[in-house]
Each structure stands twice: as structure tokens, then as C-alpha cells.
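Hi, here's the filled form for the chain we discussed.

Project: internal
Contact: R.S.
Residues: 680
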Amino acid sequence: MRQKLLSFYHKYRSLFLLAVLLLWVKTYISYHIDFDLGVRGWFEHLILLINPVAGTVFFLSLSLFSKNVKRGHRILFAIYLFHSMLLYANIVYYREFTDFLTLSTMMEAKSIFVGSENFISGAISLMKWYDFLYWVDLPCLFILMKRRSSALVLADERLLSGKPVGGKALAWALILFLVNLGLAEISRPMLLTQTFDRNDIVKHLGINAFTVYDSIQTVKHKNASHTPEMDDVKLVSAYASKQYAAPDKKMFGLAEGRNLIIIHMESIQQFLIDYHYMDVNGTEWEVLPFLNELYHSKDSIRFSNLFTQIGQGKSSDAELMTETSLFGLPRGAAFIRNVDNTYYAGPHILREKAGYTSAVFHGNAGSFWNRTDMYKGLGYDFFFDADDFMLTEENSTEYGLKDKEFFQQSMEYLEQLQQPFYAKLITLSNHFPFPYDESSQPFPQADTADESVNGYFAASNYADQALQEFFSYLKESGIYENSMIVLYGDHYGISDSRNKDLAPLLGRDPDSWSELDNIQMRRVPFIIHIPGCSIGFESSVYAGQIDILPTVLHLLGIDTKDQVFLGQDLLSPQRKQVVAFRNGDMISPSCAVIGEQIYDLNTGETIDENNEFKHKLADYYHETALEQLTVSDVILNTNLLQSCGPKDLAPVDRESFDYSIDPARLKQMAAKDQEKKARP
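And the returned structure, exactly as it came back:
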């Protein structure tokens, strides 16, 4: 065996073989250091070991078709550089989003990162000290290529000047891929046909194969017919009817006629509620004193088990769910890819059903997440973005207007809105990477190995102060008493990859931290504050952001029976408690399905395979969650609501909205409203 290996080495040693080996090694190392793929058992470890090989050989073999060694080396190095960049881009992206780059995400980057400084500062904050290991091979390989008299270069000359070897290398790559795919199918049947989880594909087939697969799926989706078929209509209609949960008669219309103010809280997680941080001196600091007071108010209905269900659309996915009760896409952002769809969203429903004026406020550019175009489809009357606020170097961050200034300046517009109104305010100060500003944040930093975790508490405390000031403005203006104020966290601030650094601050051992703990950390606050109602209580019902809209509309006295909503009224006695996540995972009060593992929520441990009853129950819940995701995808991918919307609502007329002159338009509308009120 040893002699055969030596013979193989002497026959095929070359820069090509070295490049394959280097890419293989650093990809395999990244699997263990930077990606959490949930590998279990020797069989999955074997698949993980071999899955980088086929794609690496396939693409690098394109250099072997050149008869000129120098040209072949240039092609080899270009391909090697591209693969290194793709691997590292996935590493950096995964550190924050615990996900892999898709073609849609790369194509939509312009709308996601408004301003190069946002992208650069975010990327730099995600880098680790050891990242040079992912790049040190490139100059080494380049230097070896330039040494024309080296044994490796001479071996390449013999290799390329003899019989064609490119075809042979491609054939070997195909054989290796088929072997890999066969092993993957044994481990995870129907991997490429019945999965929502990108993690599974990378674990079994590698990043190269995933990128190719995802690109094919994206192109297929783009070129596919988007006209709903009759089976699609029947599927969605039946599901929406089955999913409808009749409102609790005592709660229905509790806030009827009030203004609706929704505050979209950037990166606020549920674990911060009632959390006290202890600094190095032993002093306790309450992170969210105002939000805690609001949470426990007798006028607040609060939910302790509401989970963020975002996908790659991040904040825009949270908005989509709270406005339409539809999920984001499995890849990319619906705010960008499905901006031209027909939607029946909160602003449109409230205007048509109850005469509400609607406005959305955000201190960033309107192009961020393509909001300017999307809000027209949702039916917002007004959109106030960075162009409508006074931004200076002192009152702004890289992502726009700081929260305190944002709320203060928004009040000027809010007071002019014709009542009843629906206003949504999107905060942004508490944004990754949570830079610490000692001059404006007296709250102390945490002391962990991760700078983002360290700054998170101070940034959240600043956001809390801004909220308190905003409530004071509302009370001073007289708007507060006649409003229902809804607050929700849009997504996690601390990503899965950072949770182990956070664990000691939560009294947890990082070594015992599990995938179930990561899921539990996806809880975000959901508070419905109704001044003067005096019936506040805390609900422990398991829910998701998909359930916010029907809950809010029922409190405002608008029944959702005829709407195509995938969520349910959380105050309804008919409410189910299965929470679907965009990657196909699921959680309920009794169990959670995360990848291929099933967890018992009572013990926190995986459920034994011999426990047939619990496995069947988990399978049923998981199928329920996947059905919800599938129905949402059908609605978005076929633009089904264009032809199958509610019978009593006309579609939104996008052409009637022009956000370019909103301040002047609002001023004119307010003057007309005052004039009307002054008439005898």
C-alpha cells in the first residue's frame, strides 16, 4: 500500500494536486472551526471529510485543458483564488447569520448594505485573529508557480504536454461526486428534493456543491412560470380556512378605534427582559429598565415565548410577517425578489376597513432592503426615510439616525397624521456590531472574548432610553391615551456563533450549550400596550412573528376570517402552538425538531429513538411546520394573491403613492384636516 501511494505521488505530484490538497484541507478545517454543521457519528464525519474533494477537483481540472503551462497556472490560480474567496465569504457570513451565502443574497447585496462603510465595518468586526490561515496559502502557491525550475512546475509541464488529462480529472470528479451523493442519500434521504435546510446540504455535499445547487434553483425559480395553478389555489384556500382562529369575544375589539403604533425594535431579544448585568466590580445594571416596566404594566399584554422566524431577509422578513402574516423566502429577501407581488397588508386593510391613515418611519435610506418600492405594495400612505430627517455626524451612525433623534424628529410628522392612524417606527441604533460609545453610553461594557457581545448590553440600554423618551413625547402630545402601542423584537442581536461567549453572563456553561439553547435564544419581546385597559397579563403560548398581524387586527375589531393569513390570533382559544422556522426547524411546548435531532423541552435532551410516541408527535408537529412554510412559498412564488385575494378588498394601487414629497404632502393633508374640524 505504501509503495502504491509513493508511486501515485511520483506520477501525479504537481501544482494541481497541491492546490486540490490545500483547498481540501482548509475547507475541512473551516467545517470544524467556523461552521456548526451538527455532524454526528462516524458516517457523517466520513462524508464531511470527503465532500470538498469532488467540487475542488472538478473546477481546478479546468486548468488542465490548457497546453500552455503558464496559461494553465494562471487559470489554476484564478480558480483557486475564487474558491478561497467563496469559502471565506461564507465563513464571515456564517459568523453573523449562522447561514450560508446564496446567489440571491449576493445579488441583493446592494439593497442590504447601503453604503460601503456599513459593509466594511460589519465585515471587519466579524474577522478573527486566525483568519490569515485561510489566505497564507495563496502567496505560497503563487511563488511556487513563478519558480519555473521547481519539480512541481516541471511535473506540470510533463502532465500538460502529454496525453490530455483534463477529461480524466473531470471524470474522476464526477465519480467522486456520485460516491459522495450516494453516501449522502444513505445519511439523509431525498436531500436535494425535500429539505429547507442549507446546513444539511453543506454538511453532506460541501460548499461548492451547495453553491452550484442553490444557483441552479435560483435560476429555475427566476425562469419558472409564476402563474398559480388550480391546485395551488385549492391548497392555499384550504390552509387559510383551516388556520383561521376565531377571536376571543372578550378581547375582540378591545382597542377598536385607537391609533396603532408599532415599534420595530432592532436586535432586542427576550432574554434581556428583567436581565441584570453584573460588571467586574460586582455592581448590577438593569439593561432595559423602561421596557421592563412596560412589560409588566397592568395595561400590557405580553408574550414570553414569541420567536423570530426570519430567513435571509433579516429585518425585512420580520416586517413582511408582521404586515402580511407570510414568511420570507427560503433564499434571498421577498422585499427584493417579490416586490411586485400583490399583498393584502396591515396598512391597506386598516385603511379600507376602518379609515386609517398609515405611515412608516425609518432613519436610513429608503433603498435599504428596497423599502421604498415594497411599502407601496403594502399600501403605506407615507414613508419617511433619511431624506426626511436632519442627519448630522453627531446624531447618526453608519446605519442612519440614532434612536433618540429618530423618535424626536418623527414626532413632528406623527402629530400631523390624521387619526386614527397606523404608524410603524423602525429603530436602528441597536445594530450589529454594537460599537461602544463611551460619551453617550454610560452603561458598562461586558467582559467577554467577543466585542459584539460586550457592546450589546450598552447599545440595548441606549435603545431603551430612546423608547422611554418616545413614550414621554406621546403623552405630551395627547396621542398616547388614544393609541395601542405594539413593540416587537425583529431578530436576534447575538447570533448562534456568539452564544457560547454570552453563556457565562447567563449563568450557563459554554461547554454544555446546545442547538436547543440556540433555538431558545430566538425568543424576542412582543408587547401590546393599551393605555387604560387594566387587564394586562403574560401569555406563555408558543408563537412566532407570523402571528402578530391577526392578533393585532382582532384587538382593533377587524375580523380576519376572509384574509389569507398563515398566522393565528394568539389570544384565541383555538390557537395552535407549533412554531416553524424558515430553515424547516420547529419548536412547540413539548418538543423541538432541529435538523435531524428531536429534543424534549422538558429535559432539554434528545428523545430516544425507541420512544415511538414522542417521535410520532414530533413528526406530526414538524410536518405541520413544513406545510406552513410550503403554503407561504406557493403564495409568494406564484403571486397567488393577485388573483385570489379577499373578495371584499381591492388590490393596492401602487401608482397612487409617491414618497418623494411626503413632508409637504403631510403638511397639506394636516392643514385640510384642521380646516375641516374648524368648520361649524
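Let me know if anything looks off before we file it.
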